[in-house]
Structure formats: structure tokens, C-alpha cells
Design goal:
This protein is α+β, with helices and mostly antiparallel strands and 126 residues long. It contains 4 helices and 4 strands; from the N terminus they run ββααββαα.
Length: 126
Amino acid sequence: MLKTCSICGIVHDFNKICHSKRYKKTTDNSLFRSTSQWTAKSKEIRARDKFLCQVCLTKKYGTEYEFNHKSLEVHHIVPLSVDYDKRLDDTNLITLCRFHHEMADNGAINIEELKDLVSNSPLLKK
């Protein structure tokens, strides 16, 4: 299983011990993710999305379970590095499983499709 290394920031095997001399740089983005503001917003977005991966609900992109509630993460549709001001914007945040989050980060899932999921999801209608 692959994971992002906490030492070098590169994705490699979960069981590999990293001997890299490169260390992740501390950035505004990484500092933001450790704030209470982000923790609270992340919980709010997961609740808004009914604790389900919003891409799995569409049954696209290699979905195994339509109602996936495992390994959930909150994804910034427009990345923090592109527009830091949207870091807490509800319309820029979506709940994804780890698999679909990685696909979204790598560009395999279109940004416009993720925006449509946030604005048109029947689960999000109050």
C-alpha cells in the first residue's frame, strides 16, 4: 500500500523506511491543516456530505461501494496552492475516500465535475 512519507513528502510503499535526507518544508498550507479552524471545518464538511464519499455515490472512477464511509478525507477542489483564500469555502470542499482523493489530487477527476457534485448533490439539499 502506498502512502505519503512524513519525512520526504514522496509517495512510496507503506512498509518502506525512508532514509531520505530531504524533509518536507513547512508551508502555510501544511500549517493550516493543523489548525483548529481546519479541524472544525473538516468535521462540518463530512457531516454535510452525510459521511459518504461523494464520488463513490456516482459509481464512477473504479468505485467498489456506492455508500462508502471508510477512509474519508476532505478535499480542496481548488488547491490551497492555487487559491489560499478558498481554504474554508464550503463550495470548495468535498468529502472523498482516500482512493478518490488521490485521484482528484492527481487530476484524474475533473475539477468541474467535483464542483458540480458539491452544488448538485441531492444529499446536500437541506
